[in-house]
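Rotation project, supervised by the postdoc (A.L.). Task for the rotation student: set up a whole-complex structure prediction and record inputs and outputs verbatim in this book. Inputs entered:
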Amino acid sequence: MKNSGNGKVYIVGAGPGDPELVTVKAVRLIQQAEVILYDRLVNKELLQHCSPETILIDCGKAPRAHAMPQEQIQQTLVRYALEGYTVVRLKGGDPLVFGRGTEEALELAEWGIPYEIVPGVTSAIGAAAASGIPLTHRHYAASFACVTGSRCHGSGPDIRWDLLAHSVDTLAIYMGVSELPNIREQLLKHGKPSSTPVALIERGTTPDQRVIVGTLADIDTVAVSRKLTNPALIIIGEVVRIREQLLHAEQQALSMIG
Ligand code: SAH
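Outputs recorded:
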């Protein structure tokens, strides 16, 4: 138990996977942290920045190999902060993009505990950049939306596939791997052309990154045959074609040099 009263919690974005895709502020806070609670998708290399004395809590691996329940994470944050520790809550990507950072901030606010939210590069932005797919493009896409592919049973608003099929040019879908057949069906049902290109980016920005490309017509079978696994991001829209253009231009340049 430390002197109580001086604790603070930093809810920090750890970026999309590449340990260099974090903010200077995130690195400084990891260096200064006395306690770090980190999620499964956080690149563990980031923990090299912390001091040997830092208390490290892996929220992705609680006893019996289950993820630590959200309530327990919040209780742990509160407990350490009340004991006076400087706590970093490290979350994959950006803490507020499908990250439940708000629930944690709300809990801290209710306890009167000071906290700060530090943004991170969200995986849609990271994976798009690392795979050569622009989410917007002067000629092909004036808008993009970040969408969750899974909705916890009955919680929150329904996903408006009917509107998303028409009103947004590029869809970046998180947590959609197991829902891919359903997502595809919904978009086709609501009139999205089956020729719309789709990219599946597995482990974006990491050395294991894999990009699988298809169209709405075949993407679910392609995903199965190529054994797509989590974490992966689904990008749907004409911008996916730009990747082919980039790859083609790169190959031509290489062949001219060679
Ligand atoms: N707060 C995170 C998202 C958490 S939801 C962020 O801002 O990125 C978890 C989902 O993020 C995964 O199911 C997957 O769709 C996506 N994701 C996270 N890391 C990824 C990566 N390296 N490559 C592709 N998708 C990733």
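Student's summary: The mean pLDDT is 94.
Supervisor addendum: The pocket of S-adenosyl-L-homocysteine is lined by residues 16-17, 41, 91-94, 97-99, 122-123, 127, 174-175, 201, 203-206, 230-233 (CB under 6 Å).
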